[in-house]
């Protein structure tokens, strides 16, 4: 999508729609201009409390006087809780979503020119994300991205904003594609193609190579499926040669039926989203390469399908993970940790200086933190602080959960080193993280459980339902500020 500067004067704008940022004081220049052009329509609207300019709330004006634009959408900018870049993303997303209902050529955005370039970058990303829907297979689309954006704001934000928005949308697309389209092999192929186009180094390991390298836990999860597992390693070497890479590790269960511990249909129906961690890693790596960031980053995604069959792993099976740890399987639905176990140990052996993993790992995380907040667990507080700061700045909330050793005690097995579920169901997000901790050695590590925010059952004002592409912006932000 191309982006061009918008004319300073709203009266000179010619476009198919315009999105105008508004607060109660009418402090943005475009809101004031619109108010003058319409003889105080906007002031009266606010005065009579027909509409409150709360963040991401919109109000439509058809063919307002004095404008050469058939549709103006007012979008509220006011919110006390979020930093400016986070507000910018949501406001722009809501504006874009409000005008996406039919095809339009040029859509102009006049949000807040006093924002810094970072906020405008987030806003442009928001505009791309808000105008793209999950309607991949609808003949009659509900979302129509504009052909061109006209933007009031610093031009230095145009290209990074477009890169970020596109990368988030690619992560969303991977999640939204049906599980019969995106399975381990096909996802690896698509990532290989996108990665190569963006300048990433891409390596794909097939089931034979995984076998030879002892990925016993990950392979056991994939055994129930006709479709063989894949490991994809993405590499971006933009930093100094001696700098050890940050490794991003993603859970890529392309469909989670639960395996022999079969899920009920109600819990299974959205389980194409169980590769959202891997999708976030892919989206981030694509953005990092396109932005040519001066950092060294590895992206590792473990791709498997978790299905029941005559070949499935069984309850009571003992697996040998890549790092030699033996694991008793007591629930085949606790498969994400088995996949991550081997991929985390691979990241360590590839020389990672730090690891961040992302996974739709536990339903317990939804119980603990709700649908919008990711759980954060770590063995290294400084790294956790960096991730938290980036997440807060982007408006992708994360919250810490404790890693007390008592939770680890619950994962000990009588027949093997550890078991894949805890003796008790309480604290399930933390016991899963304690399981993962066995596979990172002493590498500084942050685990993000994104089971809540990865997938929306209902749309938000600034984004359609379905895959959210969550944590791509946070991770890119983190890599830009280190
Ligand atoms: N993929 C699920 C977790 C999940 C649940 C993600 C809801 C997104 C929304 C994971 O593989 C799983 O099934 N976890 C089990 C673990 C249990 C068997 C210890 C769970 O949460 O019930
Ligand atoms: Mn599962
Ligand atoms: Zn799962």
Please tell me the CATH architecture of the largest domain by its name.
Answer: 3-Layer(aba) Sandwich
Strand order of the largest sheet: 7-8-10-9-13-17-14-15
Low-confidence spans: pLDDT under 50, at least 5 residues?
A: none
The portion of residues forming beta strands comes to: 15-25%
CATH names the topology of the largest domain as: Aminopeptidase
Which whole number gives the mean pLDDT?
98
Q: How far apart are the first and last residues' alpha carbons, in Å?
A: 29 Å
State the CATH superfamily name of the largest domain: Zn peptidases
In CATH's first tier, which class of the largest domain applies? Alpha Beta
Notes on the structure:
The chain is of the alpha/beta class. About 35% of the residues lie in helices and about 20% in strands. The strands form four sheets. The chain has an eight-stranded mixed sheet with strand order 7-8-10-9-13-17-14-15, with helices on both faces. It has a six-stranded mixed sheet with strand order 1-6-5-2-4-3, with helices on one face. Strand 3 and strand 4 form a beta hairpin. Helix 13 packs across helix 16. The longest helix has 19 residues. The radius of gyration is 23 Å and the shape is elongated. It binds ligand BES, manganese (II) ion and zinc ion (ZN). The site of manganese (II) ion has 4 residues, from loops. The site of zinc ion (ZN) has 5 residues, from strand 9.
């Amino acid at each position: 999508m191309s982006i061009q500067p918008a004319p300073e004067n709203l009266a000179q704008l010619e476009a198919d729609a315009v999105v105008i940022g508004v607060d109660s004081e009418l402090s943005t220049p475009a809101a004031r201009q619109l108010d003058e052009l319409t003889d105080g329509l906007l002031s009266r609207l606010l005065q009579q409390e027909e509409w409150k300019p709360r963040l991401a709330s919109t109000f439509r004006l058809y063919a307002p006087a004095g404008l050469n634009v058939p549709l103006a959408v007012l979008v509220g900018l006011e919110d006390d809780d979020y930093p400016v870049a986070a507000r910018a993303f949501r406001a722009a997303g809501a504006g874009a979503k409000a005008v996406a209902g039919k095809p339009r050529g040029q859509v102009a955005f006049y949000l807040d020119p006093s924002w810094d370039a970072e906020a405008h970058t987030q806003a442009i990303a928001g505009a791309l994300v808000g105008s793209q829907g999950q309607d991949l297979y609808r003949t009659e689309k509900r979302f129509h991205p504009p052909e061109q954006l006209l933007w009031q704001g610093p031009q230095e934000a145009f290209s990074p904003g477009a890169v970020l928005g596109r990368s988030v949308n690619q992560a969303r697309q991977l999640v939204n594609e049906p599980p019969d389209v995106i399975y381990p092999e096909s996802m690896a192929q698509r990532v290989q193609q996108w990665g190569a186009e963006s300048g990433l180094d891409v390596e794909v390991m097939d089931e034979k190579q995984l076998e030879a390298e002892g990925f016993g836990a990950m392979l056991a999860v994939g055994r129930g499926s006709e479709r063989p597992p894949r490991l994809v390693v993405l590499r971006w070497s933009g930093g100094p040669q001696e700098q050890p890479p940050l490794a991003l590790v993603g859970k890529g269960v392309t469909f989670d039926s639960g395996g022999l511990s079969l899920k009920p249909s109600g819990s299974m129906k959205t389980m194409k989203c169980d590769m959202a961690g891997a999708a976030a890693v892919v989206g981030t790596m694509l953005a990092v390469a396109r932005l040519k960031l001066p950092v060294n980053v590895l992206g590792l995604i473990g791709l498997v399908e978790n299905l029941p069959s005559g070949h499935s792993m069984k309850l009571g099976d003992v697996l040998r993970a890549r790092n030699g740890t033996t694991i008793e399987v007591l629930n085949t639905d606790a498969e994400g940790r088995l996949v991550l176990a081997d991929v985390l140990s691979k990241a360590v052996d590839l020389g990672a200086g730090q690891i961040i993993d992302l996974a739709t790992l536990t339903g317990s995380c939804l119980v603990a933190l709700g649908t919008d907040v990711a759980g954060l667990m770590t063995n290294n507080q400084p790294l956790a602080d960096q991730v938290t700061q980036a997440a807060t700045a982007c408006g992708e909330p994360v919250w810490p959960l404790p890693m007390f050793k008592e939770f680890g005690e619950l994962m000990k097995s009588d027949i093997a080193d550890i078991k894949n579920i805890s003796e008790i169901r309480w604290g399930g997000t933390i016991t899963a993280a304690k399981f993962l901790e066995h596979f990172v050695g002493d590498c500084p590590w942050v685990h993000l459980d994104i089971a809540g925010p990865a997938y929306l059952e209902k749309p938000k004002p600034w984004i359609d339902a379905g895959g959210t592409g969550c944590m791509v912006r946070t991770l890119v932000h983190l890599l830009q500020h280190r």
